[in-house]
Predict the 3D structure of the following.
Amino acid sequence: MKTETWCVDNTVELSTDNPHIIEAANLLKRGEVVAFPTETVYGLGANALSERAVEKIFVAKGRPSDNPLIVHIGSKEQLQDLVQSVTPHAHKLIEQFWPGPLTLVLPKKAAVAHNVTAGLESVAIRMPNHPVALTLLKAANVPIAAPSANLSGKPSPTEAKHVYADLAGKIAGILDGGVTGVGLESTVVDCTTELPIILRPGGVTKEQLEEAVDCEVLVDKALQHDVHIAPRSPGMKYVHYAPDAPLQIVEGDLAFIQAIVNDARKAGKRVGVLTTTEQVNKYEADAVLACGERKNLTSVAQQLFATLRSFNTYDLDVIFSESFPREGIGEAIMNRLTKAAGGHVIKY
Ligand code: AMP
Ligand code: MG
């Protein structure tokens, strides 16, 4: 299949008359799969009301069919066609954070294709805050199921070229809207329970959620590193975000990490180090990459997935990553990094 790429200029006012948007929306309406930028990462979209269209997402990504997708909407009004009810907590969260990097899990209506939710009675929904995504959703005029636009198991794409590298020839088109903003996927919150439960940390933090709903917000037990508890969010159990070489997180200072690097190199390994601009010139290894600035965790989040992908060009045997404080967006950074490392953490 030929994959069309359309460059869309974000700096000008976008309308549903834009020829690239029309072409992409028409493909979606015809049941094809199209990648598009959002403020979190690039999504791989298909009509959420069509089981056949959604099936193409799973095929293109190689995604396990028991890992449900997030449905993206272009206006809050579309919600009523997709969910049985909107709880008072969900109402407050929508008012505060939509459009934005927050996904809500609610009881689903029958119109949502069965494979979108992997057979669950609940559906995950969000309204993204990105001009290209919103204009495309309005032009398509159907809810769009969209996971991240990467091959299953690889880091999520934050630029169109990442999508192209993973999915060229497998999807109908890619809308290129430049680099995404947040850089990590949305926060996922289960709103089917009495107290909201965070299923995946992301751009919206626990503190921000609690302030909006004015009650305690719980954190799913599977996120608290207890591997023996069955995850509530089915996608939690799979390998994610992995670079080609195995990644290990190191909790310790520069000298401790350099000693580990030295040992590995003495054993004949080619070694990568993931650090930040502050320390990038202080390590000796085969590839030392800066992922943002440590003093600005927002920049680390923005660059994390692209940095993980960059290591693949160095033919490494192992990558050691500095760890980050689990505060604010740091919670989401460490969640993704821990998954990329398959849970491997070396402690001082
Ligand atoms: P991705 O599309 O790769 O960003 O992943 C979507 C995330 O949302 C996965 O972690 C899914 O398990 C989660 N998710 C989607 N739908 C549901 C649902 N109905 N209940 C719980 N988690 C969900
Ligand atoms: Mg994903």
Q: What stands out?
A: Residues 4-224 form a domain with the DHBP synthase fold (CATH 3.90.870.10). Residues 67-70, 105, 117, 120, 122-124, 147-148, 185, 188, 199-200, 233-236 surround adenosine monophosphate (ligand 1) (CB under 6 Å). The mean pLDDT is 94.
